[in-house]
């Protein structure tokens, strides 16, 4: 039987895995897509950022509402949304239509997560240990191979095939869903998720405000006529969010988050981890410029990061079991800082490979650190699962805003120049990596602000 801790982590782990798969598919071909739609970097990253933002909102909505719907209906709805979204992306003739397709994909992925978590947990319970190890290695292999396949598919055929190919698989899953979901029953008691909607609005207003800022205006970009109203709306969403959650009978965001300094620090910390990871979307393009003699360098860079992250997870878990998750976060942020700094400052081939390995290990350490153990110390056990979903929302929000911020540093470079000669971004690209390194440094310092295990919950 699974332990309470295992049940808590299932959805969180599957959510991270699915979002990682999407990043590995899209990132190696992002510059190609930007060239097709004549986009600058600050708008091209929206293809990933909008997916992360909608996915962070879709996960709690699809999991917790409506309670009267069975898992089977949720599964069918999720598959339908993902298939339609993939089709829309594959035929899109405008950037706005492509983003709508990406939103539909994110909604579908959010609905798949709960059932995937239950199905994999049940399968593992009835499997022998060597099968579990084989499944783990298979998933790690998928993460390593997928960016390579993405780059090769786009170069041989077209990037649109990356969104056409999954549709037959989704149709197959749709056909077998009635049998596969038999016995899953109805979901747990509902929560009031109106607050999640206000969180989503706050996130999208902040993303739009940052994307509209002109880096040539300096600090005045924040108060530009087309930008300031968006920032006001983003900050203003905090008020209705607080009011709705305060009056809700079963609020999604636990009331303790507004009263407990530890939980506020925890969500800020998780936001920083998501922000620090966002540079992974820019690294492949920069690697392609630094290593032009290597074919599909974008895919190889992501594959090396994924392999390094997967290899570091067993060590990270062992370290966490002995020393606690704080050591994992500390080492992870240090490695991410060093990797980003190397990619920004020392632009020679061998340091690029070293930086990619360090970045992957840093990702593995921060990704596999057991966040749920912190929440188990501070929250009642019945609130931990929802608290972990909220943490996932904060992390995805950090990733989405981080992407927009890094693209802002790159500046409004001509899209054709960006695609055909990415070196034209120099020195803007190193500045973006320096920003990512700075956020990792802040994350490192913030680990010392988190309460230690010895502190008891009031």
Q: Please, could you describe this protein's structure?
A:
The protein is mostly helical and about 450 residues long. The protein folds into two domains: about 5-190 and about 250-445, Growth Hormone, Chain: A, CATH 1.20.1250; about 190-250. It contains 21 helices and no strands. It starts with a helix and ends in a 12-residue tail after the last helix. The relative contact order is 0.14.
User: Over all CA atoms, what is the radius of gyration?
Assistant: 21 Å
In CATH's first tier, which class of the largest domain applies? Mainly Alpha
Q: What can be said about the biggest beta sheet?
A: none
Helix fraction? over 70%
Q: Going by CATH, what is the homologous superfamily of the largest domain? A: MFS general substrate transporter like domains
Might you state the CATH topology name of the largest domain? Growth Hormone, Chain: A
Structural class: mainly alpha
Task: Kindly state the number of beta strands.
Answer: 0
Query: From N to C, what is the helix and strand string?
Result: HHHHHHHHHHHHHHHHHHHHH
Q: What is the topological layout?
A:
Layout: H1 4-26, H2 30-36, H3 41-44, H4 46-64, H5 71-91, H6 95-125, H7 129-156, H8 161-164, H9 166-180, H10 194-212, H11 228-236, H12 238-247, H13 261-277, H14 283-290, H15 297-323, H16 325-345, H17 349-368, H18 371-378, H19 381-410, H20 415-420, H21 428-446
Protein name: Major facilitator superfamily (MFS) profile domain-containing protein
Membrane topology: Multi-pass membrane protein
Keywords: Membrane, Transmembrane, Transmembrane helix, Transport
